[in-house]
Design a protein that fits this description.
201 residues, single chain, Cytochrome Bc1 Complex, Chain D, domain 2, mainly alpha
């Protein structure tokens, strides 16, 4: 039994040394203008979701979901997020193929994560990507407003859709179904059991 355990420990240490050696010897590509492999994208998205699930407080949005607050969220998105994640004219992002990993288009392929997940990512950013932390630029209430907007892109109330239509000079926003590529890049997670996270604001 002792030899079996030592064999497992040796195998783990050996794999770790191989991984470290592969990285330090420069075998891992670092170019930002190439599409990641399916396995790399799957691993990266899984690691990100697991990290946010572990570290993010499961908060409820304290900002009322009113037309005015959703419009404020749309404005914040347009001024600060559209360059990477797609503008309200529904055109592709200017940096879609220039960042690694590629930023998702949050208007044509809306985020389906819960609001506490979106808020945590927007506020704290994502290390080793082009996603900055916005906590030094915006108050929490403003981050919650853009969070509310992003989580309701495909089900906005009529007044907000009218504002979007006038601002974009085009058709009313109707989200497109997720593409096969986006489904592969972000695998479906098992739904955790519902837990009572009260008290929260």
């Amino acid at each position: 039994m002792a030899k079996f355990i030592l064999g497992i420990v040796f195998a783990i240490v050996l794999l770790a040394l191989i991984a470290i050696g592969t990285a330090t010897l420069g075998f891992i590509p670092t170019r930002a203008n190439v599409e990641p492999s399916e396995s790399e994208a799957h691993f990266a998205m899984g690691a990100l979701d697991s990290s946010v699930e572990r570290h993010a407080p499961h908060l409820n949005n304290p900002v009322p979901v009113t037309d005015d607050n959703l419009i404020e969220g749309l404005k914040i998105y347009t001024m600060n997020c559209a360059l990477c994640h797609g503008g309200i004219d529904r055109q592709a992002s200017q940096l879609e193929h220039s960042l690694y990993p590629p930023p998702p288009n949050l208007l044509t392929d809306p985020d389906t994560d819960p609001e506490w997940h979106i808020f945590y990512v927007v506020k704290n950013g994502i290390r080793y990507t082009g996603m900055p932390a916005w906590d030094k630029s915006f108050a929490d209430d403003d981050i919650w407003k853009v969070t509310a907007f992003l989580s309701r892109v495909d089900k906005l109330p009529p007044a907000v859709q009218d504002y979007w239509k006038k601002a974009a000079g085009g058709a009313a926003p109707v989200a497109e179904p997720p593409t096969e590529k986006s489904k592969k890049e972000k695998p479906e997670k098992e739904k955790p059991e519902k837990k009572d996270h009260h008290p929260h604001p």
